[in-house]
Amino acid sequence: MTTVSTRLPEDRYGRSSDERADRTLKIVGSALGAVLLALVGWFAYHYVGQNEISGQVITFEASQDTVKAHLEVRKDADATGYCTLRSQAADGTEVGRADFRFGGHATEIDKVVTLRTTAPGTTAELLGCHAD
User: Is Membrane one of the keywords (predicted)?
Assistant: First the structure.
């Protein structure tokens, strides 16, 4: 007894339509993957590489209605921008927030800034620095 094959001879009829569809899907998938990879790379470059100003709080001293914070800011030579600083009370409520501007030709700035608060603050948190 012999078994009957339902497969067509490839030499006689060429490639099946399923193989053509698979090849088309592979090409389209590869192209979309390359576009997605390029888009993620572009966003990463602009997020990391284009940040012209960065800073950190070195120390702070809180009093009844102010918080004095020593900020260290690093920036490009001609960049101007601001850093946002906030203070919170012991229970976590925000008691002060302000933007401090930085400009000039210096690339590193050490400055003590005074943040006015509505109640005694227990923290000095740098929320971020942004270029103009």
Answer: yes
